[in-house]
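REVIEWER CHECKLIST
Item 1: Sequence provided? yes
Item 2: Single chain? yes
Item 3: Sequence as submitted:
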Amino acid sequence: MEIIGWIAAGLTTISFLPQAIKVLRSNETSSISLWMYSIFSVGILCWLIYGVYLKSSQMIISNLITFLFAVIILRAKVKNG
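Item 4: Structure as written out by the authors:
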């Protein structure tokens, strides 16, 4: 069953990569919700902390990477408005 966790972690993490790349390349963030990415980033940080508490490598790795992607997008949104 642990493989299901790794697959889920990988897919949900990779799903943010195209948006992060698009934002980095275009600097276009007008269609992105500041509130959504703010709340999402805090939620992912909570999952990361919970993963550390559980010592779950799939939760730690996937949420750390997802948090980094979300923060890249959120930072660009705050910077560009």
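Item 5: Key structural point noted by reviewer: The mean pLDDT is 90.
Item 6: Recommendation: ____
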